[in-house]
Amino acid sequence: MGAQAEHLKPTPVSTTPTLTQVLEEHLAGAQLLFEQRSEIVNLQDLTTKDLQLDACIDGLRIAGAEAWSLLDAALAEADNSILFVATILALESKQTARLKQLLALAETENTLQAGIKEAFRWVPEDITRPLLPHLMASGTLFYQELGLHLYHQHQIHADTHLEWAITHPSIQIRHAGLNAVGDLGNTALLSPCLQALQSGPVNNRFVAARSAALLGETTLSPEALQSIVLGHNPQQDKALPILAVFLPLEATQRFLTQLRGHTNNKRLLVKVAGELGDSRNIPALIRLLADPKLARIAAFAFSFITGLDLTEHNMEADAPADFEAGPNENPEDEDVESDPDENLPWPDRDKLMQWWEQHGTDFKADTRYLMGKEITREHCLDVLEFGNQAQRKIAALHLKKMNPASPLFLIDAPAWRQQARLTQLRHS
Question: Which one of 21, 54, 270, 310 is least enclosed by Cβ atoms within 10 Å?
């Protein structure tokens, strides 16, 4: 009987995950974190996510051939996150044949090129730099664009290749070259940038004007950028932060008046008012706090200038009882757009008005402000370390304005590269 009972015992089921399951979890985690990088809040948030992302990739690195079996299957229905991970592993392990396959896939399916570019940005320069001569000499537009992307992201000066690029007949090469020249601070190439500004489609003129402004040109580039903004062009959103920083302070009120006459987008006007850093716009922002549709973005612009943290100073309020934004449960409602300010706190208008009455005299009319302080090099570095992404973008542009020959601080680079650059700038 005892032997029979032993025979009837169920076989234990192992709860230990298989290697394949572990690798699938690593890959899924890497894919999710790759997508979340575009939604980061600040450098601290980015650092956390990038460390988690690298840990997921590390699990695949260690697995070697088993990881490639999983990736080869995933590449049959690849997206940018899969290309990102696979390209990193191919670059780091110097698997030339696999890298060529991935590049050929992205060249054929250009919607996958972003994943390749992000991987080339992620991997350290000492791994990718030896590829530059081959990429630039390939004769393939995508490879050449990737080479220019490497110069740009790793801030490598290469005047010969960049001068070749900004006069290239291909618009994608020309734009990659112009962006690199402006961001790197190649002031010797300002003249061809200005030549590119004189003709071509509006997106070409925008890239040329942006680069010229970053290189310190103060006449033609602001005029071109204002023309682009006031002309309702698709590049308007990209041009406005450049203007907010590089437009002389004495010209900002006239520009806002012109913009108000050329757009019905009040959120856009409010956002620009904050980025301009002109405290003369604070009374208008306070008035807009009474409009539920604009209250949160107006408070954000208020904080952009004054540095007031609504949460820290207990100046939040409840949402208006009758306020609705974005899609609701009514199937007949055609409004399917999400609430653009859902992550912003609701302001207590009375408290903000009281705060401004007490502190408004601390702000001078002839001075730009960012997060409550006059714009200095040291303050910009503090904002780059502790500010949110919108504030960091403006701080990076102000640093560039102070020294046009210096590289633009890239706020979407891997977190450890940003931290290293900040340390370098603080000690230079």
Answer: 21
